[in-house]
Amino acid sequence: MKAHTSETQSTITPEKALEFLKEGNHRFVGNLKANRDLLEQVNATREGQWPFAVVLSCIDSRTSAELIFDQGLGDVFSIRIAGNFVNQDILGSMEFGCNVAGSKLVVVLGHTKCGALKGGLDAAKIEGMGMDNLNHLIDHFNPIINTIIEDGEERSSANLALLERLNQHNVKNAIDDIRKQSSTLKRLEDEGKIKIVGANYDVETGVVTWL
């Protein structure tokens, strides 16, 4: 499988881009890999890059987008931050990926057993550890937690049902933020030039479920 060129990228629709990722995860789960010469792809992409998708995922070491979607060099823009939420810099990266570099798909990829989301649920414990920047990060999840937690429900990462609800809602919240905070990406989606979708990676099975 060769690296994408400007010509091949131009023929990819948002629907086809999504299908590429679905097929790639199917290969990954089946312990199969597309036949790629990575050094050849290095050579092919030395003058430029034409990725077909932008994937926002967590920094979790088990969730590398290139691996779990079986993609090669130059295929996807990979944006990673603990808890896969968006901010202005990440939105700027997405706008570059789609409006400048021509990607056709934006994926917000959450995952099961997310440590950042666990930290959000266990914020009281984390705050006592003296890590100011980490505290700032996990504060991003408080509004979602306060919305989805039920009366009398235990706020703890040990509450696995709450943790998974938070994971799902966090992905949906990130998608909402993309549409609300980036007029560029919203316009591209409205024009049918890109899709913005959510997904969840299961760290136990390797399967990606599309939301």
UniProtKB/TrEMBL annotation:
<dbReference type="Pfam" id="PF00484">
    <property type="entry name" value="Pro_CA"/>
</dbReference>
<dbReference type="InterPro" id="IPR036874">
    <property type="entry name" value="Carbonic_anhydrase_sf"/>
</dbReference>
<protein>
    <submittedName>
        <fullName>Carbonic anhydrase family protein</fullName>
    </submittedName>
</protein>
<comment type="similarity">
    <text>Belongs to the beta-class carbonic anhydrase family.</text>
</comment>
<dbReference type="InterPro" id="IPR001765">
    <property type="entry name" value="Carbonic_anhydrase"/>
</dbReference>
